Each structure stands twice: as structure tokens, then as C-alpha cells.
Amino acid sequence: SILLCVKQEYAALLMDVKIPAFRPQTDLYPVLAECISTICQILHAEKEANTGTFANQVKDYIDTHFTEESLCSTVLEEQFHCSFVKIRKQFSKEFGTSISAYIESKRLALANELLLKGKHSVTEIYQKCGYSNYNTFLKAYRRIYGSTPSSARKE
Q: Counting beta carbons within 10 angstroms of the beta carbon of residue 150, is it exposed (0 to 12), middle (13 to 18) or buried (19 or more)?
């Protein structure tokens, strides 16, 4: 029966689901409805659990690679073998922010830390933080911190 096929496909998840023996004198609708409902609840719970896990995997990858200029949607698609739309939706659902905003906040926090230490030039800093050019870095820094990187260093 179809229920046995589903149970075989998801054996580990559905090991506690009891599939009743077929009895011709019994109305099968309530029995099937209960089995299908139980299966759907288990599969939904598993999907919800995997959503958090997947989003955390994406976050961990970004946390490790945010300083790489090449980090982009294509890289994430290749890394996680799925569309960027799925990655973006799962990430924003789990963390309440977009991937680009998260990457930018990580890059700018590191840039600000390096600026305040004063050991590197502004050029070295924006390159170390994953920005491809100064203008992009400058606009992002001004938007978040309200000043230029050079003036932040002087304060």
C-alpha cells in the first residue's frame, strides 16, 4: 500500500507510526486520515528542524568566508547545492536579516576594529574585509557609522 511505501522511504522518522492491517469490514477513511495526519506532522517537524540547521550551516560558512571578496550568491549556491532563493529565504526566516546585510555587518565590524587598532592603512583594511574597491567600502562605512574610515581612526 502507499502507506507502506511512505513508511519505508522515511523509516527512521516514522518508526513509531502504526499502520493498521486492512480489514474489509472497517471504514478505512478515518484510519487512513489518522495515519496521513501523523506522517505529515512528523515530516513537518523534521522540515522545521532542518530549516534551522540549514540556515546555521549557511551562517557558519559566511562567518568563515566573509572576508573573501568572491563571497556571493553563486558561491553559496555551489557550496550548498541549491538555489540562492532557497538559501536567502531560509537565512532570513531564521535570523531576521538578509544575507547581504549580515555579510556587510560582519565586514564593517571587522573594518572598524582594524581601524581603531591603527596598524593597517585604510586600503589594507577594506581589502582584508572583503571589499573590492574603496568607494563601496566608504559608502557602506558612512551609512553604518556616520563618518569616514579616516575620521574614525582619528577619533
A: exposed
C-alpha cell at 127: 581589502
Grid cell, residue 72, equals 556571493
Are 22 and 32 in contact by the 8 Å Cβ rule? The answer is no
Q: Work out the angle at residue 25's Cα, subtended by the Cα atoms of residues 19 and 27, and round it to the nearest 5 degrees.
A: 60
Distance CA 64, CA 60 (A): 6
CA dist., res. 143 & res. 111, Å (int): 14
Instruction: Round to whole Å and give the CA distance between 97 and 94.
Output: 8
pLDDT in tens, the chain (155 residues): 555 555 555 565 555 656 556 565 566 667 777 777 777 777 666 666 555 688 899 999 999 999 999 999 999 999 988 899 999 999 999 999 999 999 999 999 999 999 988 889 999 999 999 999 999 999 999 999 999 998 877 66
CA 97 to chain centre: 10
For the record, the C-alpha cell of 99 comes out as 544575507
The CB-side HSE value for 94 (13 A sphere, CA atoms) comes to 20
